[in-house]
Amino acid sequence: MAWFAGVEAGGTKFNCIVASDPKNIVNEIRIPTTTPEETLPKVIQFFQETEISKGIKLSSIGLGFFGPICLDKSQEHYGWITSTPKLAWRNTPVVSYFQEKMDLPVSFDTDVAAAALGEGKWGNARNCRDFIYLTVGTGIGGGIISDGHPLHGMIHPEVGHMLIPHDRIKDPFDGVCPSHKDCLEGLASGPSIKARWGQPAETLSPDHPAWSIESDYLAYALANMTLSYSPQRIILGGGVMKIPGLLETIQKKLVQFLGGYVQSDLIINHTEDFIQLPGLGDRAGVLGAIALAQTNS
Ligand code: ZN
After folding, report:
1. Ligand 1 mean position, distance from CA 186 (Å)
2. What is the DSSP string of 33-47?
3. Cα 159 to ligand 1 centroid, rounded to whole Å
4. Spatial distance between the Cα atoms of 83 and 89, rounded to a whole number of angstroms
5. What is the pLDDT of residue 297?
6. Are 6 and 284 in contact (CB under 8 A)?
7. pLDDT band for position 296 (cuts 50, 70, 90)
8. What is the rounded distance in angstroms from the CA atom of residue 38 to the CA atom of residue 200?
9. What is the CA(98)–ligand 1 centre distance, in A?
10. Which residues surround ligand 1, an ion (CB under 5 A)?
11. Between the CA of residue 271 and those of 55, 75, 231, 253, 256, what are the distances in Å?
């Protein structure tokens, strides 16, 4: 069996895993995200010690990182974390570090693109060539898979910061995004819900007015992504999506907002197939890093 190293690098922790697929996992660890000097050597140490203790040889490594990151191989900054608000990580060359320390092929992408690949390989987007993974939690981000591959383009999509209708009579809240205030993330992320209502999202009852506002914003975002990318499926992950009933409300509003314009049987009659929760649950990101590693093997 071939073994792969995966890293899901987030703002608070690095989830590291050695696996072949979701059923064959050799070792896992969580390492706090502090500084590159402190965190990265611990990741390398975990992989090297796992190879020795388990008597295996790793084939390649997949890195799903918080961004923004440089994915353009023609640029000298390829493989770097670039303009991140996490100052200690700004301009950190990640890919070259792992190549030097591990001497393995390294695949690098955003955390959400990795999660999307995981859902495409083992989760609820199997058999789709064009689909989206959107996470709604501490932040909002999306991985767009186009013809089986993560869409990069100029930098990489940042759908969490798309601008959406903001009815200030229904929702006078200004929004929390440091760059845009009332972009999607500014209005619909976990921190924005907490700031608007003065209590964390998970403590609001399912019939709280928060969820009518939240489902509006997420359905607007899904309508925009449906119209822009023409996906065969959209997977909605992240902590906020665990609120009972939220998924179903979003599905209904999406059909309503599209107004019958996109004449697809999938959207109109099978919205529950078109918009789904992740098959891999909270493990989409870390298992997605394994799927990402396998693109290079
Ligand atoms: Zn924003």
Report:
1. 6
2. ---HHHHHHHHHHHH
3. 9
4. 9
5. 60
6. no
7. confident
8. 31
9. 31
10. 161, 177, 179-180, 183
11. 47, 41, 13, 10, 11
Ligand 1 centre distance from Cα of residue 83 (Å): 14
Q: Report which secondary-structure segment, H or E, holds 122.
A: helix 111-122
Q: What are phi and psi of 241, to 5 degrees?
A: -70, -5
Give distance in angstroms: CA of 39 to centre of ligand 1: 27
Which residues fall within 8 angstroms of residue 182, CB to CB, at 6 or more apart? Answer: 163, 166, 173, 174, 175
Q: Which among 6, 122, 124 has a CA at the least distance from the CA of 65?
A: 6
Q: Does position 292 have pLDDT exceeding 70, yes or no?
A: yes
Q: Residue 254: which H helix or E strand, with range?
A: helix 246-258
**CA 157 to ligand 1 center in whole angstroms:** 13
DSSP 11: S
Q: Kindly give the distance from the C-alpha atom of residue 84 to the centroid of ligand 1, in angstroms, as a whole number.
A: 13
* 239 alpha carbon – ligand 1 mean position (Å): 19
